[in-house]
Known about the structure:
The chain is built from seven helices and 17 strands. By secondary structure, it is an alpha+beta fold. The chain has two domains: 8-71, 434 Repressor (Amino-terminal Domain) (Orthogonal Bundle), CATH 1.10.260.40; 142-318, Sandwich (Immunoglobulin-like). The strands form five sheets. It has a five-stranded mixed beta sheet, with no helix packed on it. A five-stranded antiparallel beta sheet has the order 8-9-6-12-13, with no helix packed on it. α2 crosses α3 (38-45) and α6 (273-283) packs antiparallel against α7 (290-302).
Amino acid sequence: MDRSLPPTLRLDSKKIKRIREEKGLTQLYVATVIGVTIDTISRWENKRYPSVKRENALKLADTLEVPVEDILEDIGDDTARTQGEQGYTGQEGPSTAPSCHNTCVENGLRNAILIGTLALLFGVGGLVLGYFFFRPSNLSIDISAVRFLPSRCAPGSLFPVLVRVDINPATKRTILVKEDIPQILKVTKAVPRYTSVKKGILKWIYQGDTTDLKFVYIARMPPSAQEGKRLRFKGTVTVKTSQTVNVTVGGNNCVVSSPFYWADKNGDNRIDDEEILDAYELLAGVNGMKGILKEVENLWAAGQYKWDRATKRFVPIKESQ
Length: 321
């Protein structure tokens, strides 16, 4: 660990998000490598945790494969200017009554200071009013929309999809979340329930706080889907401010039909400890997910599994067999 750095460091949220997306890394991957939650990564990228411990900053830099300086804020020279703040330091003369000249100078200085102060107040007031009445709307809102989608799923089996939305500053808003999914997929559940669905397009209209929103739906891969078939997703989040703002949903956008369970990220026919933790992290706090999480538990507890093509089911296999 670099001990030359201070105990806490200020992260540059925009740099972190840009580097992560350029390298094609998900928030879930970064969180898993560092050993923190997805929520923590989101807060780092949205500047809700501007200062972090030195060790976490170094871990984040290692995960993103960049020097730690590349993810820190650029700190300018803010050396305090003290000249003139400590009063008059010249040599005092004899104690005599002030002359008319000195009195006039003092009065002039007081008047100049008063006029300068009033001008400053009016100037600041004008800037504040201008900011609130004429500021561009895109400077007042920060929208993050990411999709968490398994990379593979077996024909005929279920898999979850999560769209996470985070809008800052946190306030009550009305938003529209739209997911355009392959029409051959059947959606069996959505939390919260979608407002409408038509021709493979799911829509949610949400009103309320817009921090850490989760829109989850469970889809079924068609039993007839050929192995290797790629299904692509796309989505948008629309927010109404002084104007309409549309944001494309990022994250994974493709799932492949293959004989593996959705939580088996590396395709080794087992759910290891890291993968079950990822599954719980993904669906934590979402109502109605007990059934799919129970299935993950059963395969994790068994140690291994196999895909039965005849019954279109995953069969747990004890490691001792």
